Structures are given as structure tokens and as C-alpha cells.
Amino acid sequence: MSHNINHASEEMPYFIRPSLNLDAKGKEAAYQKAAMEIKAMLHGEDNMFVKMVTINSLLKINLPYAYWVGFYCVNNERLTVGPYQGTIGCVHIEFGKGVCGGVAVTKLTKIVEDVTILSEGEDHISCDPNSQSEIVVPVFDKNKNLIGVFDMDSSTKSSFDKIDQKYLEQIMADVFEVDDLITSYQ
Ligand code: SME
């Protein structure tokens, strides 16, 4: 029997729990720890796949509101899902469609406090009905070419803010925009 799975069900798999938001102090501490662990794990690493899977894992471990984390990579003038952690992610996203496709066009980080108010299929693409808020960050290579976007969803509204944007943009720049990982987190 073939199973046509193109998006996640309402029921969360046993290994995924509902998101828990952090206050500003807790968020800063969590990102400082995650960023230092990413620095330690990826120092001198040049393999793109290793970089992405490591970022996904360490962010999901350190951020209790990280319900879905992953990359969408530029591929034949659209976005194609790359390494991710979470429920089934949409496979291909056209530039300009959804939050990810919009960021691929603007090349600017987008924070969505409540995805349910967006036009479904246009300004938002729902891969999982549990996703309630989202941040998407553009990812560039050392020549400032867009190589993809990093997407983080939460099952709780208003999980993301400028603190997430600051650290995620810094992590992506440190990991993907230089040959060797050069980071400085004060
Ligand atoms: N919500 C994203 C699609 C990716 S799934 O959330 C993993 C968007 O609107 O582009």
C-alpha cells in the first residue's frame, strides 16, 4: 500500500514535543550556548551537509521552541528542502511563495508571529498544522550568493523576535560565509 504523505498530521510524533517559549534572558543564554557549540563542532569544517545538520541539531537541542528546523537550498531557480529536523517538510518551494520563497527574493530575514493570518499557499506554506510562528533567515556563501534559507518553526505563537534574528544571522554568516569558522560571540 502506498502512502501519499505530503504534509505532517495534526498529531505530533512521539519524539517531538510542543514548543516552549523563552524570555529574553533565557533566549540569550540558549543562543550563546548553541553558538559556542556550533563553533566548536564546525571549526575548519568545509562540508556543507555537515554544517547544516550540525546547526539543526544544536539549535533544536538548545531552543525548546524549535519545533521544526531546517534548510531550503537554491536548486534550479527554486528552493529544495535540505537537511532538517522535524515532521515532514515540503519538498520544493518556488521563489516568491511562502515565507521561505519570499525571503529567497528579498534576501531579508522574516519573522512571523502568527502564520495562521497569512494567505495560505501564497504568503505561507503549511507543512505541519502545528506550526504557529516562524522565522526564516537567508543563507549566503562567501561571495554573498544566496545558497538557501534557514527556516525555524514553533508550535507556539510569537516565539521569534530580534534576538533570534541577531543570532541566527550571525551563525549563518560565521558558518557559511567564510572558509574556516571564525566566530566571536561576546
Ligand atoms: N512554512 C514555510 C514552508 C516550510 S515548512 O514550514 C517546513 C513557508 O511558508 O515557506
Number of domains: 1
Integer-rounded radius of gyration: 16 Å
Structural class, judged by helices and strands? alpha+beta
Helix content: 25-40%
- Which small molecules are bound? methionine sulfoxide
CATH superfamily: GAF domain
Q: What is the strand arrangement across the widest sheet?
A: 3-2-1-6-5-4
Question: Which strand-content bin applies to the residues?
Answer: 15-25%
Distance between the ends: 54 Å
**Would you identify the regions where 5 or more consecutive residues have pLDDT less than 50?**
180-186
| SSE run | HHEEEHEEEH
What is the average of the pLDDT values? Answer: 91
Morphology: globular
SS element count, helices: 4
Q: What top-tier CATH class fits best?
A: Alpha Beta
Tally the beta strands. 6
For the largest beta-sheet, the strand count, sense and barrel status come to:
6 strands, antiparallel
Query: What is the CATH architecture assignment?
Result: 2-Layer Sandwich
CATH topology: Beta-Lactamase
